[in-house]
Design brief:
The complex is a heterodimer of chains A (341) and B (233). With 341 residues, chain A is α/β, with parallel strands linked by helices. Helix content of chain A is 30%, strand content 27%. In chain A, helix 11 links the parallel strand 17 and strand 18. Chain B has 233 residues and is α/β, with parallel strands linked by helices. The chains are: A alpha/beta (341), B alpha/beta (233). Chains A and B meet through strand 2 of A and helix 1, helix 4 and strand 12 of B.
Chain lengths: 341, 233
């Protein structure tokens, strides 16, 4: 079938490309309906990646967070009209030890492999997760990010020692908010403390036990385990502060993406016997768990509703460009576009 | 109900010395017509999708549809000698085989415009449910010049000029009434289906098309179309 794929060809420049798609019996066809923007998409859009990376990965359709409606399933497992979240990680091999999102052979949408900015997405059926009808599709559009939080907290559970008393989260942006919301559900007996740079953002975290501005943290504040959700050059400062405030033998889950290598005070990591655990992306299982958590917790859904920031409908590529620009000027929340191109 | 009608009645006279009508020529390993139909079967709101083709090519059309399309809603119907006759043959089929109501609409589309998108089809459905007739257009890029023999008679203001594409969509009853008002001459010579409704005084609503939703009419068009299509790795 002739499918229109809307690719970024250079910074701030999208073009349409017709691609002849073949529907395998194991695939389904999904019409994207709501797409959510991620910092990674913005780094491509603005050209804030290395020239080598841009040369290697573009042209490419952006967006790896989104929902859509099923329009065709050769096996009849999905019905036309079913709302599904699309899993961007696409494994080509399986491994008994390494999770699908850490396998180098896996393809990832909007990272060297076309993302969801397409007329139709041809998806392997296990990459589609049914979304309950009572979910707001704008909120469901960023379930991928929720699944990334699930992946990180699941990793933490496996790695950390027995001390669950205080979970500390560094970062007051979208990822910090989502991770804090999930931690409230996945660690119901722990105290939750969030550290950030902006008081007006920290004010959104009304459900946690305490928040601190990072330049005003009392010395006696201690966390059992920590999650870093800052990314960029801020990661170095956040990790430094975590080392100062975490209990010996604690685990630090690193989630923020930094474009450049950052310094880590390994002397203190060694001295305190800390574990640094990297966490990135997610797999099908994390998506399903994210949907299950949201299905069973109306309050978690409500908290995530508050994260819907910029919204709008896009019909043309100039409107898509304008939407990306609006998101760049956005201060709080996720940008979700209704896809009508 | 919402119906679709793929107009595949063309004889392909502008394609040069090609025996087969252009809608059956191959683009990206499949007949052009099949690419077009594949887009329509993904719209679940269509109650039926008619392919109206020349009488001489009825069995061929049925065979390729059988090979590539697995959807009971798709029916192959014999068309007429001219475009409007082909259109109305499809309408006659709908009248005979379905219980049509005053609210029913039909989305008609050229078989040789395989780059149609979901958005254009959806916009046509939305508009057809609201207006008696709908035309898909793109703003004219070149200046349109009207002339007779060897001289220009007028040059209209480009900003108000559009190039007509398809789909053209209609409230079925409004189309039948408008067609019945035409003279025999008009029926034979009108090259645009929306003009049937325009002559009858109906409002024709505009829907935005796409420049790439072009009609594959000449060997040049087929070359361009072939060059546009990329294979998924």
């Amino acid at each position: 079938m002739l499918n229109q794929v809307y690719r970024l060809v250079a910074a701030r420049q999208f073009e349409v490309q017709t691609v002849d798609e073949v529907l395998a019996p194991t695939d389904i066809i999904v019409r994207p309906t709501y797409l959510s923007l991620c910092h990674a998409d913005q780094r491509y859009f603005t050209g804030n990646r290395s020239q080598t990376a841009l040369r290697k990965k573009l042209p490419m359709a952006l967006i790896h967070e989104g929902v859509g409606t099923v329009v065709a399933d050769p096996q009849g497992e999905f019905k036309p009209g079913d709302l599904v979240a699309m899993v961007p990680n696409t494994p080509t091999k399986t491994n008994e030890i390494v999770k699908e999102n850490y396998l180098p052979s896996s393809k990832f949408r909007s990272s060297g492999y076309d993302g969801f900015m397409q007329e139709y997405v041809f998806l392997h059926r296990d990459r589609a997760i049914k979304i309950p009808k009572d979910f707001d599709p704008q909120m469901a559009a960023f379930i991928e990010m929720v699944s990334v939080g699930v992946q990180a907290l699941t990793q933490l559970k496996h790695t950390m020692d027995a001390d669950q008393k205080v979970i500390g989260i560094w970062g007051d942006g979208n990822l910090g908010y989502i991770t804090a919301t999930l931690a409230k559900t996945m660690f119901p007996n722990s105290q939750l403390v969030v550290f950030g740079r902006h008081q007006d953002k920290l004010d959104y975290f009304s459900f946690v036990d305490a928040t601190y501005l990072v330049d005003d943290v009392p010395e006696n504040v201690q966390v059992s385990q920590a999650i870093e959700c800052t990314g960029g050059l801020g990661s170095a400062q956040a990790i430094d502060q975590i080392i100062d405030h975490i209990q010996p033998m604690g685990t630090v889950v690193l989630m923020g993406v930094s474009e450049q290598p950052i310094d880590i005070n390994t002397r203190m990591v060694l001295e305190r016997g800390l574990t640094l655990q990297g966490s990135s992306r997610s797999g099908r299982q994390d998506f399903q768990q994210a949907v299950d958590i949201l299905s069973h917790s109306a309050v978690t859904r409500e908290r995530l509703q508050n994260l819907i920031g910029v919204t709008g409908t896009v019909h043309t590529l100039p409107e898509v460009t304008e939407f990306f620009e609006r998101d760049l000027a956005n201060y709080w929340g996720k940008a979700v576009m209704r896809w009508a191109v | 109900m919402i119906y679709a009608q793929i107009l595949a009645g063309g004889k392909g006279t502008r394609m040069g010395h090609v025996k087969m009508p252009k809608q059956f020529l191959t683009l990206a390993d499949k007949p052009i017509l099949i690419h077009t139909v594949e887009k329509f079967v993904l719209e679940s709101r269509f109650a039926a999708i008619l392919i109206v083709c020349p009488a001489d090519w009825l069995s061929h059309t049925k065979e390729i549809v059988h090979r590539y399309i697995h959807d009971d809603r798709v029916k192959v119907v014999t068309g007429g000698a001219e475009r409007n006759e082909t259109l109305m043959q499809g309408i006659n089929y709908l009248q005979t085989h379905y219980d049509l109501t005053d609210d029913d609409v039909v989305i008609t589309h050229d078989a040789v415009r395989p780059f149609i998108t979901q958005r254009i089809i959806a916009d046509n459905i939305t508009a057809a449910l609201q207006y008696p007739a709908v035309d898909t257009v793109v703003p004219a890029i070149d200046t349109i010049v009207q002339g007779a023999t060897e001289s220009v008679t007028t040059i209209p203001v480009r900003e108000s000029m559009y190039q007509g594409q398809t789909p053209q969509s209609f409230n079925i009853q409004a189309l039948i009434k408008a067609y019945d008002k035409l003279t025999t001459d008009q029926k034979a010579t009108l090259s645009d289906s929306c003009k049937i409704c325009l002559l009858a005084g109906e409002t024709v609503h505009l829907v935005r098309g796409e420049n790439f939703n072009f009609k594959i009419t000449t060997p040049y068009d087929l070359k361009v179309a072939t060059a546009l299509v990329e294979t998924r790795e």
